[in-house]
Amino acid sequence: MDFSSVVLLFGALLLAVVLLLAIWWIVIRRKTAKIAPNQVPPDSLAAESQAKFEPNEKLASLAGDQIEEQVKQRLKSYPDLVEVKIEFATGPDESLVISVNDQSHTEIDEISDDRIRAAIAEAVESFDR
């Protein structure tokens, strides 16, 4: 084997190693990629990012948590409703239970305040879009 064949073989081997390392690095990087705080998450995570889970909160569906957060945002425009405690939960029969100041309601029409009912209706309509 002459010198040029050894150099050519060594170069091919070196090129193969570099390509394998590049492929390995790309695969590892994809598996460990994190979503930056200012980056919009993928569609599959977008819904979860809108829901807020608070300590001692009753369990609700993801949709219920998202609508709850929208209702809370809408109620902030009413100074007298800022302190209202509203919580969406899933009942034992998988139905929606809405608690307003710890009073549970299974129907929106049971809620006495028109503004709270309107905020819920608007949030549901917005969610359905």
Overview of the structural elements:
By secondary structure, this protein is mostly helical. It has two domains: 33 residues; 86 residues, no CATH class. Helix content is 52%, strand content 10%. The chain is built from four helices and three strands. A three-stranded antiparallel β-sheet has the order 1-2-3, with helices on one face. It is rod-shaped. The N and C termini lie far apart (72 Å).
Cα-atom radius of gyration: 27 Å
Summed up, the domain count is 2
Molecular shape: rod-shaped
Count helical runs.
Answer: 4
Quick structural gist:
With 129 residues, this protein is mainly α.
Key traits:
3-stranded antiparallel sheet; rod-shaped; 10% strand; 52% helix; 129 residues
How is this fold's topology laid out?
Elements: H1 3-32, H2 43-50, H3 62-75, E1 86-90, E2 96-100, E3 103-105, H4 114-128
